[in-house]
């Protein structure tokens, strides 16, 4: 669900109802406003405000009978139908979780779990005969002293991907890029200092 | 207004995004405040206000843990919140009539 793209004009509950009701009609069909009010289940006079805004945006065309102040009929315009299609498509889009599945950037600080995973992978490669004992111990040394994901990936360079244990979606808690020049107090943990100051005490 | 079933607490786009993001986690999983903030792209103050509203309604739960000098706030959708989102999406789907 990409709610940044949710058309606020349509997202409003009252207007959503109007647009959805009109969209259920065959293209270009006109509905009388009293019938529309009845279908929406509103007392007479209620949906007019929403109608006026939709009319102004060009989503709905309203027509008045001669001499009347209030609109008598309403039609969904082509622009209105397109906007509704766009809206429903935006609703269907899944929330943006891709960020969790990307490989960490090389400058991202590595934690114990990352080092352990790389060390385990090296052991697996050694067991499969891809590394000699000397190579294994050199690479293990590099792995266990690595502080960034870049160093970790250099330690397993030239080796095929084992079935990568999928990273849990939620548990890289607060892991975020740290500047090389200003590593946080605990590597790979916690937000940057200025962020921490802003959230402390208010994020209960 | 008749009862159109669109929970106003969830309907606000920002909160809808928060709830939908948390609902995408496996049940019982939590998300850190900073990560949620990154994913949704809100300022901390803004996010806190929305989270507080959701927490007051018992749609989400939050937990603050201190880890040395670093304190981490995690949030998770409650069972109640998940039900509310289900009800909301069903109401929206009904309203849009399969569009």
Protein described:
The complex is a heterodimer of chains A (204) and B (99). Chain A is mainly alpha-helical. Chain A is built from 9 helices and 3 strands. In chain A, strands 1-3-2 form a 3-stranded antiparallel beta sheet. The radius of gyration of chain B is 14 Å and the shape is elongated. Chain B has a 3-stranded antiparallel beta sheet with strand order 1-3-2. Chain B is of the alpha+beta class and 99 residues long. In chain B, strand 2 (60-67) and strand 3 (70-77) form a beta hairpin. At the A-B interface, helix 2, helix 5 and helix 9 of A face helix 2, strand 1, helix 3, helix 4 and strand 2 of B.
The low-confidence parts of chain A are 164-180, 195-200
Largest interface: A-B, 49 and 44 residues
- Residues in helices of chain A, as a percent range: 40-55%
Please summarize the sheet with the most strands of chain A: 3 strands, antiparallel
Could you report the average pLDDT of chain A, rounded to the nearest whole number?
74
> How would you sum up the global shape of chain A?
rod-shaped
- State the secondary-structure class of chain B: alpha+beta
Cα end-to-end separation of chain B = 23 Å
Oligomer state equals: heterodimer
Please summarize the sheet with the most strands of chain B. Answer: 3 strands, antiparallel
How many DSSP E strands of chain B?
3
Task: Give the topology, please.
The complex is a heterodimer of chains A (204) and B (99).
Chain A: H1 8-11, H2 13-23, E1 30-32, H3 33-40, H4 48-56, E2 60-63, E3 73-76, H5 78-92, H6 112-127, H7 133-144, H8 149-155, H9 193-199
Antiparallel strand pairs in A: 1-3, 2-3
Helix pairs in contact in A: 6-7
Chain B: H1 8-11, H2 13-23, E1 31-32, H3 33-40, H4 44-56, E2 60-67, E3 70-77, H5 79-96
